[in-house]
Design a protein that fits this description.
Blueprint: H1 7-40, H2 61-87, H3 93-116, H4 120-144, H5 151-172, H6 179-186, H7 190-197, H8 201-222, H9 226-250, H10 255-275, H11 280-299, H12 308-320, H13 329-350, H14 352-359, H15 385-397, H16 402-423, H17 427-446, H18 484-507, H19 511-531, H20 535-558, H21 563-570, H22 572-584, H23 590-608, H24 612-630, H25 636-657, H26 663-684, H27 690-710, H28 716-735, H29 738-766, H30 771-785, H31 787-803
Helix pairs in contact: 2-4, 3-4, 4-5, 5-6, 5-7, 6-9, 7-8, 8-9, 8-10, 9-10, 10-11, 11-12, 11-13, 12-13, 12-15, 13-15, 14-16, 15-16, 16-17, 16-18, 17-18, 17-19, 18-19, 19-20, 20-21, 20-23, 21-23, 21-24, 22-23, 22-24, 23-24, 24-25, 25-26, 26-27, 27-28, 27-29, 28-29
């Protein structure tokens, strides 16, 4: 079998179609099995539940008890606060000590008795009151006995003592759920508050937070109560995050001390990742970010300003290499994800030069071929931006995944695009590099097989709904697998097309650059149109037509042609596309290429509008091209009508150039071909309506001539129009053609009325004033008397007209 595709691409398409057929067959089988299960399943019986006449309670005794106990504990706490803050000063030293000791001891001792009697909720409420009273005791002690002590230092020591006391109390009374979590929360304060009291600085505060977080992690890993472990885990996350943020902020001012803190945070996070499987990925990401921040921060003092971001990027790439290590899979994924995130931030930092290099030529403010190059006035970009893109491209290229290959392709293109702007290259090397970038992107788009080496073959999409647990659910429709060749080819082609547009805009600065660039792009798009397949082939072929039109326009401008002469030269492009379409016939590329050539012909017509004489010639030549296209059977239906319209417009424009004002000169060229076509149609199909065959042609001349007659004082046009209308009416009556009879008779009557109107007006003016109303009355009486007969005559006339074609 003969095929226009090379064997390799045809084999890929065959494999793809087989995979789609397999996927569709699997989906249909799964659907069939589900339908069989649905048909064989018994109808479910309506569920009936027991009904009772008793009202449903809106709360359980346990929940009501908890609410009451909570309210009681809150009220007792408020009373204790009021006593401590308000009534404390009215009592002596002994009374104060006695009251606090007795109340606190009672609040802590009562839960022991309550737990023995099985009153757990009451014990929880009283224990919570005891904990609040202990805080008030610590506050009262500072106010009375240790008023000169530093508040932060005292709070640090007091929180440590309270945490230890509550830990011992909660351990002794293991049935209580409140003391141990409260002890964990209180234990977060001693070290950070101690550092603040000692003015240790932000770095020391970060170390204190990290040490506390490590202690929390130990509690979360080795303590059994779930509430204690959860509280410790949350506290460890908060303080560990604070330590990490402190290290990140300090890495910009004190890189080495901050690096030590960041590495310590990374070590703690990795330990958690190794021991806790559920948090391995998240904590590994945190560890990776800390390592990159530490290493990049340590390199910042020894690197120039433009190399700071590349330093972080290189550290991120090195961290991403952990994928090839023997660490647990979750840890490797987390560390690699952290490196990929930093690498993505570096790419975002390096992308502005790419956008500026593409958009700068398009923001033209200077005339074409002026020699002045476009300048957006943007700030200079670091010269290391292309290096970041190149490193990211190399990192993505090492992964055997479709998305990574697409990213590597885009980043490589971005590197070449940003290089001229980052290095501040002159105009000629910049344009040369743009053309090289365009070529490097478009040629792989034509043959994307080299970009897919190492990628796994696409597997058929699985059919959902086939599990046993969902046996009664309808299977979902399977989607066809993604084809790497199509995705990579489209990505490369998009990058190359963007570079081509930018190169054309930049080439308009000088004449030589314009011809060189358009010539290179024409050859490149033609080559891609021959080598590529699918959408890339069609777009490349259309782009080649547009570039050819640009070359013709540039040549006409270089030769000093005016716009109407340039319009004539542009007709070479649609002539060439008509020849190509005739050669390709029904090839998928033929129609888009011809439509693009038609768009160029429309542009030529628009350019010739200011010069009517040339416009008539352009329309006639375009009609010749349409006529030549109409010789092909697959284009005959559209091209024939287009050719007729173009020839008609050309005739009208030429008549207007000759100052011809006679309307028949414009309408007869339409009427004669229309009547010939109508006669041919009636010969092929005698049953066709005369309105379809002859109506448009006759109306094209009779109606404009009638309108001209009513404003023409001469007698020749009314006479000729009347004779023509009479002939049309007689032909309609002879051959029983409804369109001819109605149009001819109407035009004849109106033409006669126009001619007789002056005499009628003159005669009416000579009659007595009472005679016209009298005649009108008599006419109405006569019609009324013979109404039935007139009605039958009207029906008979309508039936006769209806029997005509």
């Amino acid at each position: 079998m003969n095929s226009p595709l090379p064997p390799a691409e045809e084999l890929v398409q065959v494999d793809r179609e087989l995979a789609r057929l397999d996927a569709h067959r699997s989906q249909l089988l799964a659907r069939r099995a589900w339908l069989l299960r649905v048909l064989q399943a018994p109808a479910p019986s309506p569920a009936t539940g027991p009904t009772t006449g008793r009202p449903v309670a809106d709360s359980t005794p346990r929940s009501a008890q908890n609410v009451l106990l909570t309210l009681g504990g809150v009220l007792l706490t408020i009373a204790a606060l009021a006593f401590t803050l308000v009534s404390w000063g009215t009592m002596g030293i002994g009374g104060r000590a006695t009251v606090l000791a007795v109340v606190t001891s009672a609040a802590l001792a009562v839960p022991v008795v309550l737990l023995r009697r099985g009153l757990g909720s009451t014990a929880e409420a009283v224990a919570a009151l005891g904990l609040v009273l202990m805080v008030l005791d610590a506050y009262a002690l500072h106010r009375v006995a240790l008023a000169d002590t530093d508040g932060l230092a005292y709070t640090s020591v007091a929180s440590a003592v309270l945490a230890g006391a509550w830990t011992a109390y909660g351990t002794a009374l293991g049935k209580l759920r409140i003391p141990l979590p409260v002890a964990v929360v209180t234990a977060q304060l001693p070290l950070p508050l101690g550092v603040l009291a000692a003015d240790g600085g932000a770095l020391a505060l970060g170390w204190a937070a990290l040490a506390t977080a490590v202690a929390d992690l130990a509690v979360a890993l080795w303590v059994k109560p779930t509430t204690v472990r959860g509280t410790a885990a949350v506290a460890a996350g908060v303080l560990g995050g604070g330590a990490l943020l402190t290290g990140l902020r300090m890495s910009f001012t004190s890189p080495l001390p901050a690096a030590a803190l960041l590495l310590a945070c990374a070590a703690v996070a990795l330990c958690v990742a190794w021991r806790v499987a559920q948090a391995s990925v998240a904590t590994s990401v945190v560890a990776g970010l800390a390592v990159v921040a530490a290493a990049g921060g340590a390199l910042r003092p020894v690197l120039p300003g433009d190399w700071e971001v590349p330093g972080y990027v290189l550290c991120a790439v090195a961290l991403a290499g952990v994928l090839r290590s023997s660490a647990p899979r979750a840890v490797r994924i987390g560390l690699a994800g952290a490196g990929a995130g930093v690498l993505a931030l570096g790419v975002v930092w390096a992308l502005p030069p790419v956008a500026a290099a593409l958009l700068e030529p398009l923001a033209r403010t200077t005339p074409v071929w002026s020699g002045a190059h476009a300048d957006l006035g943007l700030a200079p970009y670091p010269s290391t931006a292309p290096l970041v893109l190149l490193v990211a491209a190399a990192a993505c290229a090492t992964l055997p995944r479709l998305w990574s290959r697409c990213a590597a392709l885009f980043l490589s293109w971005g590197t070449l695009t940003a290089l001229p702007l980052a290095l501040d290259l002159p105009y000629a090397p910049t344009l040369s590099l743009q053309l090289l970038t365009t070529t490097a992107a478009l040629l792989p788009a034509a043959r994307p097989g080299t970009l897919t080496r190492g990628l796994p073959a696409p597997a058929p999409a699985p059919v959902a709904g086939g599990s046993d647990s969902d046996s009664d659910a309808a299977p979902a429709v399977a989607s066809p697998p993604v084809q790497p060749l199509e995705v990579l080819g489209a990505s490369a082609f998009g990058c190359g097309f963007a570079s081509a547009l930018s190169a054309v805009a930049a080439a308009l600065d000088t004449r030589a650059a314009t011809f060189t660039t358009l010539g290179v792009l024409l050859g490149l798009f033609v080559a891609v149109a021959f080598l590529a397949a699918g959408v890339q082939r069609i777009v490349s072929a259309c782009a080649a037509v547009v570039v050819a039109a640009g070359l013709v326009s540039a040549g006409a401008a270089a030769a000093g042609f005016r716009d109407h002469h340039t319009a004539l030269s542009l007709l070479l492009v649609p002539a060439a596309t008509a020849l190509i379409g005739g050669r390709l016939r029904r090839h998928p590329v033929a129609l888009p290429v011809e439509l693009t050539g038609a768009a160029v012909a429309l542009l030529a017509i628009i350019m010739a509008v200011p010069t009517p004489a040339v416009l008539a010639l352009v329309l006639a030549l375009t009609g010749v091209l349409a006529t030549a296209t109409a010789l092909r059977p697959e284009r005959r239906a559209v091209a024939s009508w287009t050719a007729g319209a173009l020839f008609l417009l050309a005739t009208w424009v030429r008549l207007a150039v000759w100052d011809v004002t006679t309307p028949e000169a414009y309408t007869l060229p339409v009427t004669v071909p229309a009547l010939v076509v109508g006669a041919l149609r009636r010969r092929r199909d005698p049953e066709s309506s005369s309105w379809v065959a002859y109506g448009p042609g006759l109306a094209a001349t009779l109606v404009p001539s009638l309108l001209a007659t009513w404003v023409d004082p001469d007698w020749r046009r009314p006479l000729l129009l009347g004779v023509a209308a009479l002939a049309v009416t007689l032909l309609g009556a002879r051959f029983r053609l409804q369109a001819l009879l109605v149009l001819g008779g109407t035009v004849l009557a109106l033409d006669a009325l126009h001619e007789l109107a002056p005499y009628v007006v003159q005669a009416v003016g000579a009659l007595p004033r009472w005679l016209p109303p009298a005649l009108a009355g008599l006419l109405l009486l006569a019609v009324g008397a013979t109404y039935e007969q007139r009605l039958r005559d009207a029906r008979r006339l309508r039936e006769r007209l209806g029997r005509m074609r």
